[in-house]
Design goal:
Elements: E1 8-11, E2 20-24, H1 35-41, E3 46-50, E4 54-56, E5 59-61, E6 65-67, E7 70-71, H2 73-94, E8 101-106, H3 108-119, E9 126-130, E10 148-154, H4 162-174, E11 178-184, H5 192-204
Parallel strand pairs: 2-3, 2-8, 8-9, 9-10, 10-11
Antiparallel strand pairs: 1-3, 4-5, 6-7
This protein binds D-malate.
Length: 208
């Protein structure tokens, strides 16, 4: 168990071949936050839900930031590698299919999921990013092998401007991802409409 270096919640899928949802909470959350959504999003999927290791005034996050929307890029790179290695170690430990891991991230969790896509794309099969920003811009840009990505952001989000969302979609597309961009008439909070839209997208982008 030593290699599983994150506090986490795990529940197996309906079968060893089931996809596994990598649930990534927002700032101040924990590994239980998104678990109730998992069965709504993809019935039968397994769940791997780590708790972010960085504490900001007692609130758990997945990487450090210098200010709202200004990220500590060195820490982000280290934390992204650490999370990718955790997912790989967890697949070995729990014996789930490592080629069928789907990230579902909210806010800070969506941002580290975006960073995984850009720095360690082999770890993710698909990704759902709720209220995501551009985490970093790698140079050179990686080649993401046609990974389907849903970006679901709010039109009136005070934290993520519309232009930032469009920059993220453009960046992921330039790297090769198949991006579906969905706007919600919402702010930064997750809504039931987000869950319904993500569920439909997960069902339609499923591979046999
Ligand atoms: C947050 O509050 O978590 C930010 O909006 C996103 C981030 O810092 O990654």
């Amino acid at each position: 168990m030593a290699a599983l270096s994150f506090v986490h919640h795990y529940q197996p899928g309906a079968s060893p071949a089931s996809p596994t949802l990598l649930l990534l909470h927002g700032t101040g959350g924990n590994e239980q936050d998104l678990v109730p959504l998992a069965q709504d999003l993809l019935p039968g999927a397994g769940v791997l839900s780590p708790r972010g290791k960085v504490l900001e005034q007692g609130m758990a996050r997945f990487f450090r930031r210098l200010a709202e929307g200004v990220f500590d890029l060195e820490d982000l790179r280290l934390r992204t590698a650490e999370l990718a290695d955790f997912v790989t170690a967890a697949a070995d430990h729990y014996r789930f299919d490592r080629t069928r891991v789907i990230a579902v991230g909210f806010s800070n969790g969506a941002n580290i999921a975006g960073s995984l896509l850009l720095l360690r794309p082999e770890v993710l099969h698909r990704a759902v990013l709720f209220r995501a920003m551009v985490p970093l811009v790698p140079d050179p840009l990686p080649s993401i092998p046609r990974t389907p990505v849903l970006v679901a952001n709010g039109r009136v989000d005070p934290i993520v401007p519309v232009a930032e969302t469009e920059r993220l979609a453009a960046l992921l597309r330039a790297a090769g991802a198949e991006v579906t961009l969905v706007w919600q008439p919402a702010g930064h909070q997750l809504t039931q409409a987000d869950v319904v839209r993500a569920r439909d997208w997960l069902a339609s982008s499923a591979t046999p």
